[in-house]
Amino acid sequence: MDGVLNINKPSGMTSHDVVESVRRIIREKRTGHTGTLDPLATGVLVLCAGKATRIAQYLEAGEKEYKAIMRLGVMTDTLDADGRVLETRQYAPPNKQTIETAIQRFIGPIMQQPPAYSAIKVGGVPSYKLAREGKAEPLKPRPVTIFSVDLTTYTDPFVHITVRCSKGVYIRTLCADIGDALGMGASLTGLERTRSGRFRIEQSITLEQLAQRALEGSLEDVLTSIDTALDDFPLVPVSEADAIRVQHGNQISCSDAFAGSEKGLVRVHSPSGKLLALARAAAGILKPDLVFSS
Question: 188-199: per-residue pLDDT in tens?
Answer without folding.
Answer: 999 999 999 999
